[in-house]
Amino acid sequence: MGKRGPKPVDIGLLNCFEHEWYMALHVLRDGTPFPTWPSVVAPPMGISKAQIQSWIQRLRGMSDDEFLEINRRTCERISGKPEPHDPRVEPEVHRQWASREKEEEIAELERYLHPRKIVAEAEHKEIWNSLWRAKRLSALKKACEVWAGLPDVRRDWRWGGYPKYVLDYGKKFFLKTKWRDPRFPKSDTVRLDESRIEYLARGMAGIQAGVSPTTGIERLRNMSHSTGGPLWRKEGGGREYCGCWRCGIKLSTPAHRWGVEAWWNGVALFMKLAGVKGPKRQDGGKR
Known about the structure:
Blueprint: H1 11-30, H2 49-60, H3 64-79, H4 91-113, H5 115-118, H6 122-133, H7 137-148, H8 151-155, H9 162-169, H10 171-180, H11 193-208, H12 213-221, E1 232-234, E2 240-242, H13 245-251, H14 253-273
Antiparallel strand pairs: 1-2
């Protein structure tokens, strides 16, 4: 006979699923997986908004094959090594990747030029509000159907399964459980949206991990992030840290800042190889 009592909870699995739902719900609300994305951060000095606009125009007029060729040259310039070629991959697969990557680059650049217009897009906000406010199955179904049809979701395979998962496994949580829980932020105040995303991400993580949404919420909310915590790690050289995704973001902040600058510089090199002239020097070219 099986053991009776509460199911054991894999906190590592909960942490992983929470991370995925957190990103998926942010893509729904904002169009990006996290509140801050590379394009929201200003580019390095010397890259003007006019220059970024010229990059967007160049990308829009670029074929998939041209994008692939310039991307190959960019990678080789950065690494200093020839880009490996895998003959097993069909050319059409490469073109599909190029088309998707090109659209994502355009979207990232536009988010910097028009952050409120793109990142806080009204359509995303409306669907997000419809989702968390739903109290009837018909309203939840409609919100999930529109969510699944968003270009951001359809374009990236990572986000396509979440609306269906809510309908298949999360109906009770969305329509009943959360409304009965005094901890769920019920006010329409926008400043509570982040708390709503955290609550729903933790609840859906519980469901996906095979426990109740309430258990998922409680275990993740009360998880210790200090010495002795369930995800505490010890490495060589005496380095110790919490291995959860939230602490990982905090630890990687310096690397993230470096990564943002590297992203801008990589785009600048790509556009230079694409024949787009660089910004004019403000000092007349004198050093």
